[in-house]
Specification:
By secondary structure, this protein is an alpha+beta fold. It has helices spanning about 30-50, 55-60, 70-80, 85-90, 95-100, 135-145, and strands at about 5-10, 15-20, 110-115, 120-125, 150, 155, 160-170. The chain has one domain.
């Protein structure tokens, strides 16, 4: 069995899609206990990644580059045809970290995304279809409830596998001087 995961990490969330079963027929499904095992095992990895110095520093650094919602929506309307925002997302230090994760042996991820509190992309690999993620249930549910969002699995014709999305809340860790 091959497992591949798409991941959205943000100051608020971590999302990935797991391509779970390399099946030739899109009618099959993932047994619930198998899906739960995949989620549980990968949440350990994701939690460590989110707590890493690299991710936390990316989130801290981004705080001085926050965009207004109007600016985010303008970029989203033209995404991915605008070179500057696209390159900022793809060349971001976290995007380079994510790319390295994608190239690891036994990698289970197919996509990584880092977003800010408003759902705007900070870093991603490969290119996501949207710049703004906050208009989707995958972003809204964890923002409101603080709980993980796990989508139903669906057939991904491009990879010939079933996929599901998991979004997990990520809080920025800030160490204050003297604490």
């Amino acid at each position: 069995m091959r497992i591949t995961i798409k991941l959205l990490v943000s100051t608020m969330f971590l999302m990935w899609t797991s391509n779970v079963l390399a099946l030739s027929e899109p009618q099959a499904s993932i047994p619930p206990e198998e899906k739960q095992y995949i989620v549980t095992e990968n949440l350990k990895y994701i939690t460590e990644l989110l707590a890493s110095t690299q991710i936390q520093q990316c989130l801290v650094d981004h705080q001085s580059h926050l965009l207004s919602l109007v600016d985010i929506l303008k970029i989203d309307q033209k995404w991915p045809s605008q070179d500057k925002p696209l390159l900022q997302v793809l060349k971001h230090p976290c995007a380079k970290l994510f790319e390295a994760k994608l190239n690891e042996p036994h990698n289970q991820f197919s996509e990584f995304m880092l977003t800010d509190e408003l759902g705007a992309l900070i870093a991603a690999t490969p290119i996501p279809s949207d710049y703004w993620q906050a208009d989707e249930q995958k972003f809204i549910q964890p923002a409101v409830t603080g709980k993980n969002y796990i989508s139903e699995e669906g057939w991904d014709a491009s990879t010939g596998t079933f996929s599901f999305l998991l979004v997990s809340r990520c809080n920025m860790t800030i160490n204050l001087l003297g604490s």
